[in-house]
Structures are given as structure tokens and as C-alpha cells.
């Protein structure tokens, strides 16, 4: 399937079938997020793979009653860091240096650039910045899913505090940014037959 054809095929699934994703498919989805772009390469978030039925059922109430949270194959949760510290940056630079066969001192200017930017932000703006990185990861995941005939429904309409409590995110310095049930569409899902509406290229694009 071509990429554009895959994008036309995908939609936000409302009703999932009982079919389950394989571990190979889950691994591919995880890799798509792991390899996604991220500002500075820091990736200030975690991807939670929620399979536990009891946890997912509990999440339904904090998702305004959307049953697909519990009825899909898996529930993915992008949870961003609520704040970033010099320790986070030190750890990132150390890992980056190791992966590139460099010394930490070789990356001193890059470390300073990151520190000047991120540590000058308020805690609220750090959280906003970290959540933005989740959306980049989500876009890559949705593209991979569509190319591999895996259905998904990205969701931002949920009670953040409720999801954070259920999944124990606050204790980890994290907060939920996006929920994304994944699996396979039900043949009974009425949303599947609706025409996809998007802006035309003329409406969307401004050429300068």
C-alpha cells in the first residue's frame, strides 16, 4: 500500500473488533515511536502499552465513557515529563556521547544550547514543550499503523488527572498527553463508511 493510499484508508476508529495485535505488530509500533523525531533528540515522554483489562476498564470513566479504550486490542498512552532538569540533560548528553563514540566534552556546546533553552522555561512551559514532542511521536505511530493495516483512534478528550491517577503517572513525574486505542476496526463500525473530509490543497497551502 502506498503511503498516500494508507492515509486515505485510515480513520479514527470508533468501534474495534475483538481481534488482537500480535507481538510483532506491537514491536513495530513501538519502534516507530522510538525512531520518531524529537526536539534535540531528547524524547521527554514515555509510551505506555496498557493491556491489563481491569486498568483499561477503569480508564473508560476518565475517558468520558468511550468504550473503545477498553475494547480495542491495546491502549497506548503518551505520557510526557512534567518538568526537565539539568540531570535529565546530563543523562541525555552522556547517552548521546556514548552512542556517537564521542566524549561528553565534545558535546559541551550542544549541551549548553539545550540547557539555555529548556532550563530557562517555566515548569508549565516545559510541560507544554514535552507534550508537543508526544504529538510528533503520535504522527509517526499513526503513519506506521496505517501502512501496516493497523487501526487507531488518537484521543485528547479525557480527564488527565483521572488517567494520571489510574496509571500512577504522577509518582513518575509524568502526565498523560494522548490516549490511542489500537487494534482492528469492527465491520459494524459506522465511522468506516463515512467520507473522509479534509481541506483541499488550495485551502490548506499558502505559497510564498
Strand content: 5-15%
The structure class reads: alpha+beta
CATH architecture level-2 label of the largest domain = 3-Layer(aba) Sandwich
Cα shape: globular
Computed over alpha carbons, the radius of gyration is: 19 Å
Number of helical runs? 9
How many β-strand stretches?
A: 4
What's the N-to-C terminus distance?
33 Å
Q: What's the helical proportion of residues?
A: 40-55%
What is the CATH superfamily label of the largest domain?
Answer: NADH Oxidase
Give, in order, the helices and strands: HHEHHEHHHEHEH
**Largest sheet features:** 4 strands, antiparallel
For this structure, the CATH topology of the largest domain is: NADH Oxidase
CATH C-level of the largest domain: Alpha Beta
Count of discrete domains: 2
Cofactor: FMN
Keywords: Flavoprotein, FMN, Oxidoreductase
Organism: Pseudoalteromonas porphyrae
InterPro entries: Nitroreductase, Nitroreductase-like
